[in-house]
């Protein structure tokens, strides 16, 4: 087994044990999207042209992706908090692969997210959301969602190591809340004014949301719109891979530098 | 501004080098440089035969580091911490090694509690245990006992002595002169980022000398006592007539209290009290650094 794989798995183990030892935060972060599903689904849903049940089916994939985008905040918060821990210095003075710590954090986050998303899916099913896609399509949807989560966490880890500030992560958390608002996660984009619609459709969240709706069989791919939305699977892959390719190496470099 | 400049240090294998200096002298910066946490602007070093700049990975395989602040993960239990480090060190049975170390460092009972609930002394012991997962060739201890209870301090000293007996080289920074006196084979006194003085603890003390004082039974024998003292120390004795005391400074480190008492007894001096006060390293330290107290509180500047 390569050094990176071995060290990386040890780091994944470290993060998972930490979540198990103090699960409070991980549990709390899952409450928010369920609240939003109920509020948006029943409050906004009653004001939209779409019938309530149909809107809630439309909303569940959007919330899944919006929650995945929260990886920016979670990743940043964890990395910033970690950067103050003496244990990071110990890792740096040990013969440990430099990429293992950021990668381990990202992979552990995927495990926590995958488990933590189950309650949202159950509430979704309870309020009328259904999966119509084939097993392969569903697997594809889960894969795209996790890949996107990893991309967002990569951005967060880099920012966390850059700022070394949990306060900054908290502030950014508030602003990342608006990212899904400027996408098709909660509303269809075809009603938006021209430039705003373009902006919303180029938001990576829109591509992944559209892909999930298509693969779960909740809503068809729009016939017209920006390329990532009309080709949502390819669009999601390109966005996620590009973000990971940029931010994960930056995060690793930043980590390796330490306080130098 | 450089926290460390022109700091030359050579430590022989299997010995303890005590790096002494006031706050802000550059001790911690030196340790961070030597343990690959900081990159030097200039200069070079070899740790266990590996070049610090070009063979950082090899250096990391040879060293153990215990810093001023415990480098363990507070969210993990003591056992989980040691298992993790053991895995990263590719120890074949990480759980077993963790168990051994927890026993050795008196942490077996607290092993399955999160390290954040540990007392300062327990955390520091866990930290030292983490540095010893594999016996390091060179162990860096940066103020390992600052603020520790006496029991933890004694345990840490004991472990350091065991390690050097097995051939580990130890670089120990400390503000406690007693600690350097107890452990160090050689002392490097660091002041304002450079080595101000090096030598053994005995050499350091010899720089100042000891103070011998005897109290005799009556005034008539004071002159006789002064004669013996003058002979033994080679110094001019001083008198305290009120207390019937005679004192002298000696730089002869072989002069012991029993010998002093024997000589005085042989000369027929009725002794009431005798003392030989070796200077503490504190005395030496103050004398050699000659710093005013406001300097001592200076913060360590970044590199």
Automatic annotation (TrEMBL), chain A:
Annotated Pfam families: ABC2_membrane (PF01061)
Q: Which domain of life is it from?
A: Bacteria
**What compartments host this protein?**
Cell membrane; Membrane
Please list the residue ranges annotated as the ABC transmembrane type-2 domain: 24-258
Supply the alphabetized keyword list: Antibiotic resistance, Cell membrane, Membrane, Transmembrane, Transmembrane helix, Transport
Which InterPro entries does the record cross-reference, listed alphabetically? ABC2_TM (IPR013525), ABC2_TM_bact-type (IPR047817), ABC_2_transport (IPR000412), Nod_factor_ABC_transporter (IPR051784)
Give TM regions.
Answer: 24-45, 57-79, 100-126, 138-162, 169-187, 233-252
Q: Does the keyword Flavoprotein apply?
A: no
- How does it sit in the bilayer? Multi-pass membrane protein
Q: Which family does it belong to?
A: Belongs to the ABC-2 integral membrane protein family.
| Classification via PANTHER family | NODULATION PROTEIN J (PTHR43229:SF2)
Q: What is this protein called?
A: Transport permease protein
- This chain's source organism reads Streptomyces cylindrosporus
